[in-house]
């Protein structure tokens, strides 16, 4: 490894900021859909659910500071963040495991709009081969290596049952895939240099539960306070 | 609103910390599955993908400081965080829209393990009524109000196509649901006091793309550095 490649690493953005960039992108997409062309850091922070000081700090890593008194240009900031993440380029993706979740992922418009192009749907069940989902033919899992080579696939999505996930990951890594998005409820072991991210569909539900619990607590306190004043409240 | 209920609000944890608590919970579950009983803040921070100073600060809101020289007890910290989020209690949930995604969500084990209990699956298509998914009968959407009242449902999940999402949200809110998890690719308008969170399945893919892009850049620099030294590198 050369000193120049270490220097390249040093420019890297903090991991927590990286994780928030797609959230800003989602918030900016919402603003665009709402016909908003410029926004203050406070507005964008509110839309993204972070505080505005953190937002400004995060965007400063990208060299984006907005214009005093005007704020950020929504379209330009969208482009800057998308370029930084790398979603302005084309990412060929394979999805393995075409059950209900695989079907839903193949049909998910949010992948295509972010530069992720599903080049193949693979399933271990040979009976599924030839079936078409979202306009793409399901192919046997054994064609993985050929497909990865043909399309220079770097990212694989695992939507299999938990029991199959590790062997699918092993085959993906052996074929040259270096990033795996794992929807299966299992922990994957992969060699150094391979990134794995696990999707937990319950995370957003948990955030809602936190707020529900707070709302219930506030209502309970309000009800206790109000009770002595309510008509017929003496019992 | 009484001063006591405002006092209750003041204890609220910062939103960014709330959003990280489920991530810590997921990391702790991974440690438990790996047979790890105690962990340092550095280990837990690494597993959760945040820096350890932020982790310690976040956990300090819960009154969790670990034990010097020992670290955190994984099981106890899991309980503390789960209690704070509110997932130690039972959350009845309805899922509306039983297409591929709705099927996948109904079967998703991560909901049940976090206290979310799917009490009903609803679909607008009357032909689907009676079909069974994950052991639960699909019911007509028109039964929403009755089900919400019978089970005291506070959280609704929308897995319909985009075009139907707003009218489903309106009916949910009218029936008393105050938190909505929206998988449909559409922005929902809801009254104040109702929380909506939108799931973007591409967020984790974007984080992978960022790292793929970095890996490719580092490899390109390394290749450039190495070229003059490679045999036959003179052209």
TrEMBL record, chains A, B:
Function: Modulates transcription in response to changes in cellular NADH/NAD(+) redox state.
Binding site for NAD(+): 97-102
Superkingdom in the source lineage: Bacteria
GO MF annotation: an example: DNA binding
Annotated CoA-binding domain residues: 86-187
Oligomeric and partner information: Homodimer.
DNA-binding region in chain numbering: 23-62
GO biological process, alphabetically ordered: negative regulation of DNA-templated transcription; response to redox state
UniProt keyword tRNA processing, yes or no: no
Protein name: Redox-sensing transcriptional repressor Rex
């Amino acid at each position: 490894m050369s000193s120049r490649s270490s220097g390249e690493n040093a420019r890297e953005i903090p991991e927590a900021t990286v994780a928030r960039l797609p959230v800003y992108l989602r918030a900016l997409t919402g603003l665009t859909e709402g016909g908003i062309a410029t926004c203050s850091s406070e507005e964008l922070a509110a839309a993204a659910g972070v505080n505005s000081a953190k937002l400004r700090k995060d965007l400063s890593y990208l060299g984006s500071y907005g214009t005093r008194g005007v704020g950020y240009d929504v379209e330009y900031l969208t482009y800057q963040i998308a370029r930084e993440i790398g979603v302005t380029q084309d990412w060929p993706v394979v999805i393995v495991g075409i059950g209900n979740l695989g079907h839903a992922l193949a049909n998910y418009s949010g992948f295509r709009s972010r530069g992720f192009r599903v080049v193949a749907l693979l399933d271990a069940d040979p009976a599924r081969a030839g079936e078409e989902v979202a306009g793409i033919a399901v192919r046997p899992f054994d064609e993985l290596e050929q497909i990865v080579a043909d399309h220079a696939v770097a990212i694989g999505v695992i939507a299999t049952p938990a029991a199959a996930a590790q062997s699918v990951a092993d085959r993906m890594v052996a074929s040259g895939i270096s990033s795996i998005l794992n929807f299966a409820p299992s922990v994957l072991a992969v060699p150094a240099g391979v990134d794995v991210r696990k999707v937990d569909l319950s995370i957003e539900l948990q955030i809602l539960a936190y707020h529900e619990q707070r709302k219930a607590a506030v209502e309970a306190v309000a009800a206790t306070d109000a009770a002595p004043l309510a008509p017929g409240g003496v019992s």
